[in-house]
Amino acid sequence: MAKRVLIAQGVLVGAAVLGMFVKEVPGLIREIRMWRMASFRSGSANQKPRSA
After folding, report:
1. With the CA atoms of 29, 32, 38 and 44 taken in that order, what torsion angle do they form, in degrees rounded to the nearest 10?
2. What digits encode the pLDDT tens for the residues 14-40?
3. Membrane-spanning residues where (predicted)?
4. Is the pTM of the predicted complex or chain greater than 0.85?
């Protein structure tokens, strides 16, 4: 009986974590796109040359 309760709790926690992850995916994709655009803009062409 206790093993079934633990399995049920694990399933519920897993479902909750999966649900939160699925809910956050669009925001994560948007953040990744913004990060990639920002990193492309600050590429090596825009950096100041180092003086020796």
Report:
1. -140
2. 999 999 999 999 999 999 999 988 887
3. 6-29
4. no
